[in-house]
């Protein structure tokens, strides 16, 4: 009796309920990963994530080999490839984890129908990529929570399933063969400082963070230069870490740092339950303000300056350069750059979200699209017209200018606070910097935004 375990956004062996269930009922399993051509067709296989994914698959294969098995990787249409593996292994069951996008829901339904037509069964496990699944918590008046704080109150009281141990042995039938594993080196256009992927790297990162960082997370998480957040986001995106296990571990640790991290993990689930209930929010405003955003056509030069880190606002430029160099950006910097693009430059949030999705190694549709909307004031923010001032925020969160100087070498020799406002330097000192002029004055940007938003509020 053989089962297929279809790996998707859950590239790990620890705390993996589908694998655990399959091994419980079968003598052997086929651990399968399909490089779905629909993902590539949607442009979602950006270089940084493809490179990170290659690491994840190599690491998963190595861990399976230590347990007497191996990973089977195939490319093509996911449903066809799963059915092919099922036939080759003569499997009667497929186990996989639930996913919550409209794309994943359609794909799952197609797979279920194809398997059932052939007399096989699909088992979908719903607490693999989230701690609390979408739809489990609902307010009395709606099918999902539209505001984080009440959601979090319920989320914090939800019962989590226990953690499932990694299997000791994973027997895989001989006759099912896969393609060669993709290699990170084959991917072009990768950020030079992209971190390594894979479950082993994820578990090392957790161990290091639990030793140093976690307990101070609540007080240091906004320190741009200190870089003291967990940097677990790409691991959570690819599922090399289990959110259920992380929440259990953080709660066991206790204290304000761990509690603050648990709250951030709840944001992940929050966005997933919004998107599961309103799939169109991946592209359309969750709560429209009828903005007539500036676009590539009307704001092309400003958008280019933003993308390339040449806006003349040091903290914005530092952040945008960190993004292309590392494939990751600090959360405070994401907030500042998103506020700058959508509110100061009044450019469509979708343009910013697409740029982020190209570079972010943790680029994730629910987290990215809904955080962008939150900052653009068309999402779940209860203060949709807030504008973050990049100068005051830079002075607060990068008081010594270390973050700015790390990423903007033109400002290497400028001290704080001038490093955040180079336009205030005396003429000759300013001219010697070879650093761009501001694309717009903050007051001018603010004015345009206020005029655009006045009188346009519309209830959801
Ligand atoms: P930590 O501060 O250590 O937080 C721990 C974990 O909690 C993160 O790894 C993440 O999984 C989760 N988390 C933290 N903040 C948020 C949040 N606001 N929303 C949802 N989950 C959160 N996160 C992504 O994972 N993918 C994205 O594509 C993404 N795009 C974003 C775009 C914008 C404009 C903004 C403002 C935020 C975005 N975030 C995104 C959320 C957040 O910035 C990152 O999760 C965080 O910076 C990752 O670093 P970390 O792992 O060190 O976070």
From TrEMBL:
<feature type="site" description="Electron transfer via tryptophanyl radical">
    <location>
        <position position="293"/>
    </location>
</feature>
<dbReference type="GO" id="GO:0003677">
    <property type="term" value="F:DNA binding"/>
</dbReference>
<keyword id="KW-0456">Lyase</keyword>
<protein>
    <submittedName>
        <fullName>Deoxyribodipyrimidine photolyase</fullName>
    </submittedName>
</protein>
<dbReference type="InterPro" id="IPR002081">
    <property type="entry name" value="Cryptochrome/DNA_photolyase_1"/>
</dbReference>
<keyword id="KW-0157">Chromophore</keyword>
<dbReference type="GO" id="GO:0006139">
    <property type="term" value="P:nucleobase-containing compound metabolic process"/>
</dbReference>
<dbReference type="Pfam" id="PF03441">
    <property type="entry name" value="FAD_binding_7"/>
</dbReference>
<comment type="similarity">
    <text>Belongs to the DNA photolyase family.</text>
</comment>
<dbReference type="InterPro" id="IPR014729">
    <property type="entry name" value="Rossmann-like_a/b/a_fold"/>
</dbReference>
<dbReference type="InterPro" id="IPR005101">
    <property type="entry name" value="Cryptochr/Photolyase_FAD-bd"/>
</dbReference>
<feature type="domain" description="Photolyase/cryptochrome alpha/beta">
    <location>
        <begin position="1"/>
        <end position="130"/>
    </location>
</feature>
<dbReference type="InterPro" id="IPR006050">
    <property type="entry name" value="DNA_photolyase_N"/>
</dbReference>
<keyword id="KW-0285">Flavoprotein</keyword>
<dbReference type="GO" id="GO:0009416">
    <property type="term" value="P:response to light stimulus"/>
</dbReference>
<feature type="binding site">
    <location>
        <begin position="229"/>
        <end position="233"/>
    </location>
    <ligand>
        <name>FAD</name>
    </ligand>
</feature>
<feature type="binding site">
    <location>
        <begin position="362"/>
        <end position="364"/>
    </location>
    <ligand>
        <name>FAD</name>
    </ligand>
</feature>
<dbReference type="GO" id="GO:0006950">
    <property type="term" value="P:response to stress"/>
</dbReference>
<dbReference type="InterPro" id="IPR036155">
    <property type="entry name" value="Crypto/Photolyase_N_sf"/>
</dbReference>
<keyword id="KW-0274">FAD</keyword>
<feature type="binding site">
    <location>
        <position position="217"/>
    </location>
    <ligand>
        <name>FAD</name>
    </ligand>
</feature>
<dbReference type="GO" id="GO:0003904">
    <property type="term" value="F:deoxyribodipyrimidine photo-lyase activity"/>
</dbReference>
<dbReference type="Pfam" id="PF00875">
    <property type="entry name" value="DNA_photolyase"/>
</dbReference>
<feature type="site" description="Electron transfer via tryptophanyl radical">
    <location>
        <position position="372"/>
    </location>
</feature>
<dbReference type="GO" id="GO:0071949">
    <property type="term" value="F:FAD binding"/>
</dbReference>
<dbReference type="InterPro" id="IPR018394">
    <property type="entry name" value="DNA_photolyase_1_CS_C"/>
</dbReference>
<dbReference type="InterPro" id="IPR036134">
    <property type="entry name" value="Crypto/Photolyase_FAD-like_sf"/>
</dbReference>
<feature type="site" description="Electron transfer via tryptophanyl radical">
    <location>
        <position position="349"/>
    </location>
</feature>
């Amino acid at each position: 009796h053989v089962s297929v375990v279809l790996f998707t956004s859950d590239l790990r062996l620890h705390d993996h309920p589908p694998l655990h269930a399959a091994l419980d009922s079968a003598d052997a399993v086929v651990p399968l990963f399909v490089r779905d051509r629909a993902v590539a067709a949607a442009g979602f296989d950006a270089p940084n994530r493809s490179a990170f994914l290659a690491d994840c698959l190599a690491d998963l294969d190595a861990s399976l080999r230590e347990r007497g098995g191996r990973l089977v990787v195939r490319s093509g249409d996911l449903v066809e490839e799963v059915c092919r593996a099922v036939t080759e292994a003569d499997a009667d069951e497929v186990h996989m984890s639930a996913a919550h996008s409209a794309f994943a829901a359609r794909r799952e339904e197609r797979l279920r129908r194809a398997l059932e037509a052939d007399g096989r069964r699909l088992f979908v496990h719903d607490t693999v990529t989230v701690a609390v699944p979408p739809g489990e918590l609902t307010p009395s008046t709606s099918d999902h929570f539209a505001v984080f704080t009440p959601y979090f109150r319920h989320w914090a009281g939800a019962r989590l399933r226990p953690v499932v141990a990694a299997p000791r042995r994973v027997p895989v039938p001989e006759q099912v063969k896969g393609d060669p594993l993709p290699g990170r080196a084959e991917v072009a256009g990768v950020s030079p400082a992209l971190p390594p992927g894979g479950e082993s790297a994820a578990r090392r990162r957790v161990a290091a963070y639990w030793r140093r960082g976690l307990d101070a997370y609540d007080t240091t998480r906004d320190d741009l230069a200190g870089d003291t957040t967990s940097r677990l986001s790409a691991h959570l995106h690819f599922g090399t870490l289990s959110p259920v296990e992380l929440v259990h571990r953080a709660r066991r640790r206790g204290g304000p740092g761990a509690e603050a991290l648990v709250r951030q993990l709840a944001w992940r689930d929050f966005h997933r339950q919004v998107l599961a209930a309103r799939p169109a929010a991946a592209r359309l405003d969750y709560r429209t303000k009828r903005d007539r955003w500036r676009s590539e056509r009307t704001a092309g030069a400003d958008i280019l300056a933003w993308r390339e880190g040449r806006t003349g606002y040091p903290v914005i430029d530092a952040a945008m350069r960190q993004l292309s160099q590392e494939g990751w950006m600090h959360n405070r910097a994401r907030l500042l750059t998103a506020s700058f693009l959508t509110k100061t430059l009044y450019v469509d949030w979708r343009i910013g979200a697409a740029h982020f999705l190209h570079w972010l190694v943790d680029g994730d549709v629910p987290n990215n699209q809904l955080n962008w909307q939150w900052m653009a004031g068309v999402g779940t923010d209860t203060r949709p017209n807030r504008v973050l001032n990049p100068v005051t925020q830079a002075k607060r969160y990068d008081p010594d200018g270390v973050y700015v100087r790390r990423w903007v070498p033109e400002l290497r020799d400028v001290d704080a606070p001038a490093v955040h406002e180079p336009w205030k330097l005396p003429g000759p000192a300013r001219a010697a910097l070879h650093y761009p002029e501001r694309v717009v004055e903050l007051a001018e940007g603010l004015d345009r935004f206020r005029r655009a938003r006045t009188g346009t509020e519309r209830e959801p």
